[in-house]
Here is the input.
Amino acid sequence: MMNRDEMVVGIVIFIFGGISALLSLRMPIGTFRLGGPGLFPLCLGIILMILSGAFILKIFFQGQKGQVKKEASIESSESPIQLILFLGAMALATLFFNQLGYPLTSFLLMVALLRILGIKRWGLNILISVVTAVGSYFLFVKWLDIPMPKGWIGI
Here is the structure.
């Protein structure tokens, strides 16, 4: 039953990606250096089709092997508690983004999300969060010159 539902979702996403790619061809594509308004939806549509196609093939071949799915636990990615915690962390990050600033919010969000997703070792969690926060700060604020809220730390 679950494999059939997953297969239907994969097919729907594949069709959505195909429609997105086809409709994007009505807009100017431009070049990769100077992309037109149709380039981004075209790339997204193609990526959706590739990923959903791989998902459909995976589901198809798993169904032939007769694998049985395990029950969802709090630690699994299928847990509704995990989804609620994930969405709550995103909502809190959005709520406090201007007050805390981009660097601190991105660090705290990564700490929370990695913890929710199951990385229990604090050292690894902090390391990944620092690298992600610093890397995204330099990418968006320094390299691309996108103004972000500084918050109370003033970075």
Notes: The mean pLDDT is 84. The helical segments are 2-24, 39-65, 80-95, 97-100, 102-117, 122-143. Residues 39-65 form the longest helix (27 residues).
